[in-house]
Amino acid sequence: MTCSHDQVRAVAWIDGRLQLLDQRRLPQCEEIMVLEDSNAVADAIRDMVVRGAPAIGITAAYGAVIAAGSRFKAHPDNWRSGFKQDLEVLNQARPTAVNLAWAVQRMWEAAETLEGDPVPALIELAHTIHEQDIQANHTMGKLGAAFIDNGSAVLTHCNTGSLATGGYGTALGVIRSAWSAGKLTTVFADETRPWLQGARLTAWELVKDDIPVTLLVDGAAAYLMKQGKVQWVIVGSDRIAANGDVANKIGTYSAAVAARHHGVKFMVVAPGSTVDMNIPAGADIPIETRPPAEVLEVAGIAVAADGAQAWNPAFDVTPAELVDVIVTERGVVEQPDLAKMTAMMA
Ligand code: MRU
Prior knowledge:
Layout: E1 11-14, E2 17-21, E3 32-35, H1 38-46, H2 53-74, H3 80-91, H4 98-112, H5 119-145, E4 152-156, H6 171-180, E5 184-190, H7 197-208, E6 213-216, H8 221-226, E7 232-235, E8 239-241, E9 246-249, H9 252-262, E10 265-269, E11 275-276, H10 293-296, E12 297-298, E13 301-302, E14 315-318, E15 325-328, E16 331-334, H11 338-345
Parallel strand pairs: 4-5, 4-7, 5-6, 7-10, 8-11, 10-15
Antiparallel strand pairs: 1-2, 2-3, 8-9, 9-14, 12-13, 15-16
Helix pairs in contact: 1-2, 1-3, 2-3, 2-4, 2-5, 3-4, 4-5, 5-6
The structure holds 5-S-methyl-1-O-phosphono-5-thio-D-ribulose.
């Protein structure tokens, strides 16, 4: 169910089929992809048809349903070994967002004890994962908005909205909630090179919701802060380590450094499924490096000097000491550290 200030769904399971809104084509074109094969689901995750840590996890959960269905059909008495291989392919699609591994693990654990046709029970679990994500986002929206004073402006990075989650969004959920409460004057959004999630996706979602959004190039963020134009930077995360270090879209770390320098507060909003207590610190988080062409080209057109090389890390790690507050559906942690994270996740 969508509600006011939440009109978009990136992932849907309709009439037994997985539907993804192709985010590579937005905002020019709203095209739905229908997927009926779990390897195609893994490809869609890798190729950014669907992106954003929680949305990737939800998609993988539905991908697992598809895998279980076709493996059971082919080998009703021995479907789990092929299913396990399919889950591994889904798991490998993108390495940084732990929500993917979290969802795949939940589907595997459920499947291990099932007898007979596994599909009905696995569909139910995938729906539960999806619904719980939306509920968590609404809870985080309220918890995060409570930190924001009336008359504030905020800066966000990448896309953390309905497109990146089951619906409503993490950081964008807090922004939606603060806007609904009348606390915000405007939202600034980094364009977020190279995939332009800010320019293409965040701006698209906010315009649809009638929330004023002003785009800036990523390099302008520090100057925006210097001019006192924002009071909070609010971002999502792909994986939070046990000590509160935060992996998120490349450019988040620069924004956090600039925020601390300028006395701007820095908030990270992510569900419990993004917290990885098995990873002690940010240095241990696997960071995805994507193809150089994503930097050397824009929309498939070469923009760099012929012969130039490119380095394209998709994420960076912001140390916990630069984070003022982490908001999850389990509660909030100010000035995060291992003890506080452990207490919250217990
Ligand atoms: O490469 P992407 O677009 O999947 O990266 C997404 C982000 O970095 C988001 O900020 C993060 O997944 C949190 S989304 C709620």
